[in-house]
Structure formats: C-alpha cells, structure tokens
Amino acid sequence: RLRSETLLAAYRPLLRHRPTLRLYGVAVLRAICWFGLLTYFGAFLAEELALSTGLVGLAYMLGGSGYFLGSVLSGGPLGVVPPRTLLVAGNIAMALLMGLAFSAILGPIGTVVMLPLAGFAGAFGWVAVAALLTAHSPAGAGTTMTLHGSLFNLGAAAGGAIGGLLLALAGYGALAIGLPIFGLGSALLAWWPERREILSPVERTEQG
User: Fold this and answer.
1) How many CB atoms lie within 10 A of CB 131?
2) Of 14, 26, 159, 177, which alpha carbon lies 20 to 30 A from 92's?
3) CB contact set of 138 (below 8 Å; sequence gap of 6+)
C-alpha cells in the first residue's frame, strides 16, 4: 500500500543533507530567473520592439538552439570543467544577459541575439546541477531528481508570478532588474559559503 511514511522515508535523507538542500535552492532561484524572464520575453519583443509574431517565434527558436548547443557542450567538450564552476558561471551569465535583453538598449537585433546567448549559458547550470545532485546526493538518483524536477517547476511557476507582479507594478524595466537578482542569488548560493561541501572527491583531493 501507498503510505505517507514510506514516501517520507525516501526523501528524508535529502532534507537532512545541507549540500543537497543548497543545490535545490540554486535550482529554484535559477528557475525563477530564467522562466520568469522567458515568460514575458515574447510580449516584450512585440510591445516594446514592435516585432511581428513570426519574428518573435524565430527569436524563441534561436533561444532553444542556444540552449541545446550549451547542453551538448557542457556534457561533452566542457565536461572537463568542474560542474560547480559551470554552475556559477552559467547562472551569472544567464542572469546578466537576460537582464540586458530586457533593458531595450540594444535594439531589436541585439535583443534577439541575447536570447540564444542566455540559453547557451543557462544550459550550463542545468547540466551542472544534475551532475552535482546525482554525484553527491545521499538518496537514489530517481528520488533526488524527482524532487529536483518538482522544485524546479515550482520555481518556474514562481518566476511567472513574480515577473507578472513586477510587470504590473513597474513595467519591463522592473523585470530587467528584479528577476536577474534571483539568477545572481543562485550563483552566490552555489559558490558561498559552503562551496567545499559540493566538491567532488577529486576536487577535494586536488585542493587539499
């Protein structure tokens, strides 16, 4: 029978493991930043930059292509880079690029170019979080990633809600400033102050 105690027992090791909880926090914050901005990017292109529906669709296609390329490279040629480094760098770049895109100072072409670049950088964080969680979680990979997926989706929903609130209160400028803060916060959470807790055994050996 399906019992609550059985479910709680599966997730209890995760809730007691601070490095894993920290990574879950990183995932939620980066989801708020990425999906909050991505949700309103099409409206921004249409309303502020007067792009047609077709061009908005093209921009999203380019963004998806950048994300795909970043995923392939981070799991391939960039696999020699420590996941933590990819996670921090990717989150910082994603947040700054998306904030720059919403600033409207680059014009239509420059703004559209920011989306695939942000997607390329954002993919680093996704791959790095998955690698760190599966390598260092005290629970099974299935349980670990199921909870990660749930929390990531929760962050995505929160990003849409927070982005909508900022947009209603102060317009797209508030999005350009407010939501990237969550992305930068995710990078800070991944790096400081307990960064050694999420290092791989090889990294800990190399750094003494």
Assistant:
1) 19
2) 14
3) 13, 14, 16, 17, 20
Judged by DSSP in three states, 69 sits in helix
Residue 163, Cβ density class (10 Å: 0-12 exposed, 13-18 middle, ≥19 buried): buried
pTM score = 0.86
Q: Render pLDDT for 111-156 as a digit per residue (tens, 0 to 9).
A: 999 999 999 999 998 899 999 998 888 888 888 999 999 999 999 9
Q: What are 137's two structure tokens?
A: 């979680």
- Let me know: does 32 contact 159? Beta carbons within 8 Å: yes
Quick one: which of 148, 150, 109 has its CA closest to 132? 148
Is there a contact between 63 and 119 (Cβ–Cβ < 8 Å)?
yes
CB 40 within 8 A of CB 33: no
